[in-house]
Specification:
Rossmann fold; alpha/beta; binds thymidine-5'-phosphate
Length: 216
């Protein structure tokens, strides 16, 4: 893919992804490196509306395939409206989650939990179509034991969104799936997300810098 770099952050719920992305973006600002930041599901007006449906605890009866297609629909819009044009302009794009999230949450972890054969393959096909096969140059995977992570994910009132509230077994399957995916994909760098935010940030930076030249 010609043009700018595409860096994504992945990880289970409560692994400190938002904090680490904020610290990484501060680093880019300090270094005077221009970037565009966006998040999934969301990042465009249409995709943010799809996000509301996806995360609404009142949508508990959503069929598995509806969920796959809604994430892919939000992503298709984000790819066309923002990421593809930015990359074609040579810009650095940083995105909170990308196709790996669907492969793991809707694909591998679902197959593991519900014995839904073929789900991962369906997710890959749908998303290849949605994103015209656009892959990140480097992906930072924040890895943390779900027992610790889910405590962090809870809101101040103890609330969890539709996906977060799926229980610890599902989140264990998410973690295992991410680690298995990282074994298959050289672009995915696993970062230990235990410890202070500053310590994890140092690991994130080392992983990004060893994987890509930020300024080409
Ligand atoms: P966030 O907490 O990182 O904002 O992500 C929102 C939730 O959506 C999180 O529980 C992970 C989930 N998710 C999927 O299940 N599949 C996807 O493709 C994406 C992008 C997110």
């Amino acid at each position: 893919m010609p043009g700018g770099k595409f860096i994504t952050f992945e990880g289970g719920d409560g692994t400190g992804k938002s904090t680490q992305i904020a610290l990484f973006l501060e680093y880019l600002q300090r270094e005077g490196i221009e970037y565009i930041f966006t998040r999934e599901p969301g990042g465009t007006a249409i995709s943010e509306r799809i996000r509301q449906i996806l995360l609404d605890p009142a949508c508990g009866e959503m069929a598995d395939m509806t969920e796959v297609l809604l994430y892919a629909a939000a992503r298709a819009q984000l790819a066309r409206e923002l990421i593809l044009p930015a990359r074609n302009d040579g810009k650095l794009v940083v995105c909170d989650r990308w196709v790996d999230s669907s492969i793991v949450y809707q694909g591998m972890a679902k197959e593991m939990m519900d014995l839904l054969a073929g789900q991962e393959e369906a997710v890959r096909v749908v998303n290849g179509f949605a994103t015209v096969g656009m892959e990140p140059d480097v992906t930072i995977l924040l890895d943390l034991d779900p027992a610790e992570a889910l405590g962090r994910a809870q809101g101040p009132d103890g609330s969890l969104d539709r996906i977060e509230s799926r229980g610890e077994d599902y989140h264990r399957a998410v973690r295992e799936s991410y680690l298995a995916l990282a074994e298959q994909e050289a672009r995915i760098r696993v970062v230990d997300a235990a410890g202070s935010a500053e310590a994890v940030h140092a690991r994130v930076l080392a992983a990004v810098l060893s994987a890509t030249e930020l300024v080409s």
